[in-house]
Design brief:
434 Repressor (Amino-terminal Domain), Rossmann fold, six-stranded parallel β-sheet, six-stranded mixed β-sheet, 12 strands, 45% helix, 15% strand, elongated, disordered N terminus, HTH_LacI
């Protein structure tokens, strides 16, 4: 008999008979809950494996009061950060034996309202992770009404716990690296205003850039500020705009994402500007493509953000707590070959 067919036919009672114990003991042993000796649990697990038994999710939910399902709400699916965070959440959930249900909050306000007012209230999830959304007061209240653990990655919230990096500090670190190398005139490629509607990364990263300059008594040059969409093509076109201006004296460039920084490196290459001899470039993210371009970056450990949030929220589920702890997450400067000391005389 095929394994898949045998698995469908095997019941909890079959495992109990084969192991010589009650069905209740099998349920406790396989769920990891209840008082079952180590030897009995090991015996039951071996019998279940031999019979290709897979516990019914519906039966497990009835027995435990849990769906073993983690809800994730995020505003984007196709961008690197969100995909990488989701990978971290999914990996940790899988290790803990949980499924993941993804809710994509689009730009349609009706869809967004439906997710918070109807989808989540169907109680098909044990906890919710919100990724980089600025929640309205009504949305926060709806999440609290679920009476299940909720954690936010990035974004802002007045009432709900979260894990986050300091986007202002992360950009200040990237900028300070260039200043320590002796660069005095810096350009900046940030996110367009539309990207600030929810997760506030563009405004915070711009402020980090400005703050680093202020600390050194240096001005921000408005003509050396450009906006893009966090993509390589967007960074390429923004960098061409900045690099095409004559006589600016710009010797270094901070990009608010690694993808935009890579676009800037490609734009410099097209214009015959050498990196880092004539132009130092630093990004933010820790994108895997950064190593291929030898890009200096501040790694925000996006996958670790997802893993950490999932660990916190699942620990709260297992312990019966409604409110996981709040955490500030680490970030690290990775110095590669796209940055170097400023030349004594600027090439541009």
């Amino acid at each position: 008999m095929a394994a898949s067919a045998r698995r469908l036919m095997t019941s909890l009672d079959d495992v109990a008979r084969a192991a010589g114990v009650s069905a209740a003991t099998v349920s406790r042993a396989l769920s990891g809950r209840g008082n079952v000796s180590a030897s009995t649990r090991a015996k039951i697990q071996k019998v279940a494996a031999d019979l290709d038994y897979v516990a019914s999710s519906a039966a497990s939910s009835l027995a435990s009061g849990r769906m073993r399902n983690l809800g994730v709400i995020m505003p984007e699916l196709h961008r690197w950060f969100f995909n990488t965070v989701l990978t971290g959440i999914s990996d940790e959930a899988t290790r803990a034996g949980y499924d993941v249900t993804l809710y994509n909050v689009t730009g349609d306000p009706e869809v967004r309202r439906e997710i918070f007012s109807a989808f989540l209230r169907r109680r098909r999830v044990d906890a919710v992770v919100v990724v980089a959304l600025e929640l309205s007061e009504w949305e926060e209240m709806e999440l609290q009404r679920l009476e299940i653990p909720v954690v936010i990655i990035g974004g802002t919230s007045g009432m709900l716990p979260g894990v986050a990096i300091d986007d202002l500090a992360i950009t200040e670190l990237a900028t300070a690296h260039l200043l320590e190398l002796g660069h005095q005139v810096l350009g900046f490629i940030g996110g367009a205003e539309g990207f600030d509607a929810d997760y506030k990364v563009p405004s915070q990263r711009r402020e980090g850039f400005d703050r680093a300059l202020r600390r050194r008594g240096l001005p921000t040059h408005p003509e050396l500020i450009a906006e893009a969409d966090f993509t390589i093509p967007g960074g390429f076109h923004a960098a061409r705009q900045l690099l095409g201006q004559p006589g600016t004296g710009m010797t270094a460039l901070v990009a608010a994402s690694d993808e935009m920084a890579i676009g800037a490196v490609l734009a410099a290459r097209e214009l015959g500007i050498t990196v880092p001899e004539e132009l130092s470039v630093v990004g933010i993210d820790g994108h895997e493509l950064g190593a291929l371009f030898e890009l200096t970056t501040v790694d925000q450990h996006a996958q670790h953000q997802g893993e950490t949030a999932a660990k916190l929220i699942l620990a709260a589920v297992e312990s019966g707590a409604e409110r996981p702890e709040m955490l500030d997450l680490p970030f690290d400067l990775l110095v590669r070959r796209s940055t170097a000391r400023a030349a004594a005389t600027p090439h541009r």
